[in-house]
Amino acid sequence: MLKKIMLLLGFSLILASSYADKNQQKEAKENKECSNEALINSKYYAAMLWYRNSAEMKALYRQIFSNAEDTISDTIMHENLKPKTWGVALALDATLLDDSGYALQKLNTCNPESIETRYTYETKNTLPATPGAAELSCGIQELGGKVFIVTNRNGGGESGINTMAATIQNLNHNEICYDSVIFANDSTDSNKNPRFNAITSGDYENVISTKQQRATPLIAYFGSNIQDFPNLKQNILHNVNGNNEEFDSFGAEYFMLPNPISGSWQENQLQ
After folding, report:
1. Which long-range contacts (CB under 8 A, 24 or more apart) does 157-163 make?
2. What is the pLDDT along the chain (271 residues), one digit of tens a residue?
3. Rounded CA separation 16/5 (Å)
4. Does the domain made of 55-257 have the CATH classification 2.60.120.10?
5. CA 266, chain centre distance (Å)
6. How many whole angstroms separate alpha carbon 70 and alpha carbon 89?
7. Based on the number of CB atoms within 10 Å of its own CB, is 195 exposed (0-12), middle (13-18) or buried (19 or more)?
8. Pairing mode of beta strands 180-184, 146-154
9. pTM assigned to the model
């Protein structure tokens, strides 16, 4: 009797082990197929291919930054601006740092975006600088301006302390120059206007920054989202004719970088 029980038990263990092995093989195969299929068939595949692997992306960033620095230099001369009396506001991700690896990570793991995965990506990875970002930021300081980086990364709470530390380390690693980095108050804070106002008024009471500065007029803004610029909203401007005056500041005070991977434009309807 004992022998039969032992034989049955052994047979059951073999079946269980075989079933587990087959399940693991199936899961591994499905994950691989999920990853490959998700990447190739994703609506973002062409956008990520262009952003991460095209010569045009590199040329366009360099072109925009170079033209912007020339425009800022002309403004300083024409308005006779003194050193440290003016500043420039720049967005962080997709403007100074290339965060496209997060979108690629989402596709490779077949996982949707979340606050947790975004936080892990920002604090555990050293993101590369976008082409020309270091030269532009340091060039602005050499011209006599202050560099304010205004980011929607969350600087609030305990996790915010880690995010801020990782962000500063990432900027320093890429030799990007800055005078102050201003963070969002929480993970839902995407309105940059109060932070722009803090810079121009010198009142930092309700914002999170690495260093408070005296009231500083801003003569230029850089971003990759229409909402990186003062009082501009995607839901209002996406249907406005591109020749209207609402867009007159672009190329003079506002400088837009390309971001075909993410942004407020994703809420729009194709027409």
Report:
1. 157/186, 159/119, 160/208, 162/119, 162/123, 163/119, 163/122, 163/123
2. 444 444 443 444 444 444 344 444 444 444 444 556 556 566 778 899 999 999 999 999 999 999 999 999 999 999 999 999 999 999 999 999 999 999 888 878 777 789 999 999 999 999 999 999 999 999 999 999 999 999 999 999 999 999 999 999 999 999 999 999 999 999 999 999 999 999 999 999 999 999 999 999 999 999 999 999 999 999 999 999 999 999 999 999 999 999 999 889 888 988 8
3. 16
4. no
5. 15
6. 16
7. buried
8. parallel
9. 0.85
**Sheet of 87-90, strands arranged across:** 208-209, 180-184, 146-154, 87-90, 218-223, 254-256
Distance CA 89, CA 181 (A): 10
- Residue 97, phi then psi, degrees to nearest 5: -115, 140
**DSSP-assigned beta bridge partners for residue 150:** 182
